Amino acid sequence: MDTTPPPPTIDLAAILRDTQVQEVLDGLDRELVGLAPVKRRIREIAAFLVVTRARQSLGIEAQAPSLHMSFTGNPGTGKTTVAMRMAEMLHRLGYVRKGHVVSVTRDDLVGQYIGHTAPKTKEVLKKAMGGVLFIDEAYYLYRPENERDYGQEAIEILLQVMENHRDDLVVILAGYRDRMATFFQSNPGMSSRIAHHIEFPDYTPDELLAITRSMVAHQNYHLDDEAMATMREYIAHRITQPHFANARSMRNALDRARLRQANRLFEAAMIGATTDAEALKTITAADIRASRVFTQGNATEDQ
Amino acid sequence: MMTNPQQRITQGQFSFLPPLTDAQITAQIEFALRQGWAVSVEYTDDPHPRNTYWEMYGNPMFDLKDPAGILMEINACRRTFPQHYIRVMAFDSSRGWETPRMSYLVNRPDKEPGFRTVRMETEGRSIRYTTERLRSGD
């Protein structure tokens, strides 16, 4: 080409606008409490993908970026929820065609006898194509204590598909941080194929309270002021106890409080009290106070 | 059989057309998946019109969202049986249909000998006809 056209320009804001990614990012900010480092990383990834998209449209970038990720963090820190949002974002940016999430664990991938694993893993992979494959507790795939474990076979198939079908599906591995670290150490091939390692921090007590508040509102319940104070106390206790699962523990606590509330209303009705809409909606301090978390030092209420 | 200028076996959809490209196959599968049909891959070395049941290459694929997985199976089947007939079927499980709704060939052997008609004289002056498969050497 002799006549050089003016250097083409590209409007990044337009890509952002057209794909409506901003909406997903805003939704993430609005609906998820805390998780500041995670949100920052996702913004970075979004920016990177928009720029890659622009580069591709100008012909500078030929290769599709590797998008496989690992989400590490304690239970109940929002890994699955974020994976859903991530799938939606990737879908809007055109990096996955359908944007659905297939959530699996070891049992869905690994077979029980020789020759069972490969078809099983492939079936799951086929279902996940065009979307995101979310492997929860991925470290269970690798069992070093048993050298004949079929998990290794699943990992190999997974690696192959992660490499060859990069534009067909995105794999997200999730699990506890230390166990995932061991998993990646013993499977360097897996580690090197994962572009984004995202760490999910634990929630602070204030964030947990905010989460509880939004859950309560979501279920059309309402905590009175005293109950709120008790909840704060409950969280302080619960955090120190074993099997604490962040937001999931809060949800379980809330479910049990609802149970006690229902029981309280029922018993009151049996002795002739009338129940109004406000009573049906309100969870009182007593409903929360009755939890074993307060009475037992080492209660393991939600296992 | 119908007049067939290409001397190729015509079975299922699209069989009078030139072979489908992968992109075209993908588009057809996309259509089937959108209808909620389960797609499966089958192969045979005996394409006799009365041979309804071909060998299944893996299980029918339920709950798939995207054609990429099926195309992967098709290509795996082509690699395993390059000189077989391979067809893609889409099964509609909805009540009242419960039958394949699509079926088309995606692979043929290089040489397709085809069939011939064989006459057999039987009782009296009646004649019976049968379709006989030609072997590559014939």
Mean pLDDT of chain B: 90
What's the arrangement of strands in the largest beta sheet of chain A? Answer: 2-3-4-1-5
Output the radius of gyration of chain A.
24 Å
The secondary-structure class of chain A comes to: alpha/beta
Report the span from N to C terminus of chain B: 19 Å
User: How would you classify the helix and strand content of chain B by structural class?
Assistant: alpha+beta
The radius of gyration computed from the alpha-carbon positions of chain B, rounded to a whole number of angstroms, is 17 Å
Largest interface: A-B, 14 and 13 residues
> Which regions of chain B have little confidence, pLDDT < 50, spanning 5+ residues?
none
CATH topology of the domain at 22-110 in chain B: Ribulose 1,5 Bisphosphate Carboxylase/Oxygenase
Largest sheet of chain A: 5 strands, parallel
Strand order of the largest sheet of chain B: 2-1-3-4
Tally of DSSP β-strands of chain B: 6
Question: How many angstroms separate the termini of chain A?
Answer: 69 Å
